[in-house]
């Protein structure tokens, strides 16, 4: 069903008991102001005291996946609430943090509304735009709610990110870390999302380290990107020291030089990337095993191959024939087995287990 059909009122609806006087033993109890719609609805999203809401989870917090997309892959196993009223408010442009916590720490930097909204012509227009965006995301390969998502490749699901094996992988443990929300890059996400991404990155590093390999992370952020994916490719520890040299060599061939910075941890490095990122330009960066970050802002008229990161690592690993993912696709049965094997080995490192 479309969002508009779901939210359509039936002909036999009754007046909300929260907007009329409550009678107890024939006497009128404490009144709520009938002209204060926000006040009469706010109880649904106030999490200062514990209440039982309808939905899959038994906790106080809303499930972002359900609120933003209308579905949740964990269904009855989800620990968060699947609240359709919260989803309606989100679709009307209300800030998710305000809906979930009653406040938003981003303040004036937040682009969403911080009050509950009644349906209006303006909100109806926003809803139509949201429906159009939802329709686009349903065609996206990386949206969990999409019919096109390769769900058999998913190996771990968090609150803001999920991990999946790459389709047409360069190596068998080639992983993608993907935002649950339909967003064009991982750099402009909130600090809360960055913390979860940091946990995924550290878990993957430990997992590969256990196999005598090192993790290389890279992301191609194009102005035309639709759904972000941070690629993670393990390289043998014996070749880790050569990664920076081969990327610099490839950059020289392309006619540019990387900006080089080094940090003690992922969060520091990614905070630095935010300062370099310009949403009006394309951007490429690679995080090396020793904490070094190589980044390049792609000029307006500069030609830059979308598969640059993969092509460079294919050269390092002597796998030139696997530089294009389309030549490396496997059958669904083979992919399912690879994902099952990976999950079994990754389980002790998985931050969501």
TrEMBL record:
This is C3H1-type domain-containing protein. GO terms for molecular function: RNA lariat debranching enzyme activator activity; zinc ion binding. Keywords: Metal-binding, Zinc, Zinc-finger. It comes from the Eukaryota. A zinc finger (C3H1-type) spans 57-85, 89-117. Pfam families: CwfJ_C_1, CwfJ_C_2. One of its GO terms (cellular component) is post-mRNA release spliceosomal complex. The keyword Repeat does not apply. One of its GO terms (biological process) is mRNA splicing, via spliceosome. Residues 57-85, 89-117 form the C3H1-type domain.
């Amino acid at each position: 069903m479309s969002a508009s059909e779901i939210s359509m009122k039936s002909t036999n609806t009754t007046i909300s008991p929260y907007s009329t006087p409550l009678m107890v033993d024939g006497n009128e109890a404490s009144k709520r102001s009938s002209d204060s719609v926000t006040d009469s609805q706010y109880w649904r999203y106030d999490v200062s005291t514990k209440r039982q809401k309808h939905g899959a989870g038994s906790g106080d917090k809303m499930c972002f996946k359900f609120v933003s997309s209308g579905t949740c892959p964990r269904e009855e196993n989800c620990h968060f609430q699947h609240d359709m009223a919260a989803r309606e408010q989100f679709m009307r442009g209300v800030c998710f943090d305000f809906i979930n916590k009653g406040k938003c720490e981003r303040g004036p930097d937040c682009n969403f509304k911080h009050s509950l909204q009644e349906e209006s012509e303006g909100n109806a227009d926003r809803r139509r735009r949201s429906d159009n965006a939802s329709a686009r995301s349903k065609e996206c390969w990386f949206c969990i709610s999409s019919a096109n998502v390769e769900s058999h490749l998913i190996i771990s699901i968090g609150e803001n990110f999920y991990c999946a094996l790459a389709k047409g992988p360069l190596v068998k443990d080639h992983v993608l870390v993907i935002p649950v929300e339909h967003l064009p890059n991982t750099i402009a996400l909130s600090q809360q999302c960055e913390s979860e991404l940091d946990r995924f990155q550290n878990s993957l590093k430990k997992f590969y380290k256990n196999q005598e390999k090192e993790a290389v992370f890279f992301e191609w952020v194009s102005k035309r990107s639709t759904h972000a994916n941070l690629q993670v490719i393990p390289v043998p520890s014996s070749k880790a020291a050569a990664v920076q040299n081969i990327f610099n060599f490839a950059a020289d061939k392309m006619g540019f030089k990387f900006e080089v910075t080094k940090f003690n941890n992922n969060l520091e490095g990614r905070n630095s990337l935010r300062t370099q990122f310009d949403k009006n330009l394309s951007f490429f960066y690679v995080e090396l095993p020793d904490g070094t970050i190589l980044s390049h802002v792609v000029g307006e008229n500069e030609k830059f191959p979308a598969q640059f990161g993969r092509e460079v690592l294919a050269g390092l690993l002597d796998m030139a024939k696997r530089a294009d993912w389309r030549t490396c696709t496997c059958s669904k049965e083979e992919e399912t087995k690879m994902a099952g094997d990976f999950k079994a080995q990754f389980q002790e490192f998985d931050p969501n287990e």
